[in-house]
Amino acid sequence: MHEVMKIEGGHLLEGEVTISGAKNATVALIPAAVLANGPVTIVGIPQIADVKSLSKILRILNVDVIEVAKDHIIIDPSRMENVDLNDDSVTKLRASYYFMGALLGKYGYVRMKMPGGCYLGPRPIDLHLKGFESLGAKVSYEKGCYTLKADKLIGTKIFLDIQSVGATINIMMAAVYAEGRTTIENAAKEPEIIDVATLLNKMGARIRGAGTNVITIDGVRSLSGCFHEIIPDRIEAGTFIIIAAAMAKKMAIYNIIPQHLDALLSKLRDMGVKMKVGVDYVEIERSEKLKGVDVITRPYPGFATDLQQPLTVLMTAAEGESTVVDTIYAERFKHCLELNKMGADIEVYSGRAIIKGPTPLDGAKVSATDLRCGAAMVVAGLMADGVTEISNVYHIDRGYSEIDKKLKDLGAVIWREMAED
Length: 421
Ligand code: EPU
Fold this sequence. Notes:
This protein is α+β, with helices and mostly antiparallel strands. It has 13 helices and 23 strands. It has helices at residues 23-33, 49-60, 98-107, 126-134, 165-175, 191-203, 234-247, 262-271, 305-315, 334-341, 371-383, 394-397, 403-409, and strands at 2-8, 13-18, 40-43, 64-69, 72-76, 109-113, 138-142, 145-149, 157-159, 181-185, 206-208, 214-218, 227-229, 248-254, 275-277, 281-284, 294-297, 320-326, 345-349, 352-357, 365-367, 387-391, 413-419. Strand 11 and strand 12 (214-218) form a beta hairpin. Helix 10 (334-341) packs parallel to helix 11. The mean pLDDT is 96. Uridine-diphosphate-2(N-acetylglucosaminyl) butyric acid is lined by residues 24, 27, 94-95, 118, 123-128, 162, 164-167, 188, 235, 305-306, 328-329, 371-372, 399.
């Protein structure tokens, strides 16, 4: 038996939804907290499985995790022990790799299993390791485990061949206690990087330039506890905006930073979606007539790869041809095969999808092959005629906080069941 999500499609949605704290910031902020020597309070924690996996890793490290309220935790590393991380929780998500930077930074030693996460084609971590080595660490890999060791970390200049979010954050964490100045050139500029730098600076780190291509980190001797509120999840917000563009009689989406969504909002305007964008909200009504558009994913502030999957679904309802080119993950197109099972007309080549529309969608049995494919299946299920059954729901639960409840409150017909294997 396995759990499935079922959606009866075709119901128009109406009401308000409040976006949760950003998953991709949270999964870095939690490991970053262990760099402090006192309690770190974080609010705006999303209710997602990745947070549970990271909390389990913290407990293995003898870090106290106090859940003060649903979205509010205190992480106290005062009694922390740097033990080897062999637990399966490490392989449940990719972001467990942030413990590499954090533990190397704090102790000069870490031994942990290979991180896991969504399969989106090859996802190497060579740039993270190159960064650690430049700071003075020795890296070895044996039987699925990485060992990083350094007598001393010394600040240096590190040029990233690719603007990697993970490598930028990981190097920042490893460098906070390093001697002297570390400069990361060609750094990624995603808002989640600024959020992690903000947390570290509140703890006493000296990081400048986060959100630009050049980040400098001047090493410090000690970091203390602090209070931090996580930025809103721009990918969850984008997913609800796409849902609204497809199915809302009228929907208001609160707790967003519109600037973080510029690339999506601009593309939706090109498609003919009408929106009212406020300081921290957007109001949307579905459009009867949509136009096909072309999307190329790029590092921030370009169009986010994480949103191309849900947007593809909206493209099936648009007049004419749309194309999606994913320059970040060339194999991130499994959702297209699932959408074709529902009646879409999508051809997939290497790194590119061509969507011909409009094609009505029919409910079918589909799989959430990865997190954002899962989000795409939810959008498709809401739009489709009849019932859609989504398997591998755990992928969706890794990244979307209380998605069933949020959608039900908007009038969606969505439930879970156990199905035969
Ligand atoms: N890359 C390398 N070597 C490295 C690191 C990255 O070649 O050492 C390549 C990747 O293979 C990819 C590109 O560089 O082609 C960019 O990858 P990046 O490192 O920026 O991705 P990431 O840090 O592993 C984060 C998000 C992803 C999101 C990407 C791109 C987290 C935990 N994950 O991954 O989010 O797609 O940035 O924006 O922050 C998701 O939320 O569904 C998700 C997959």
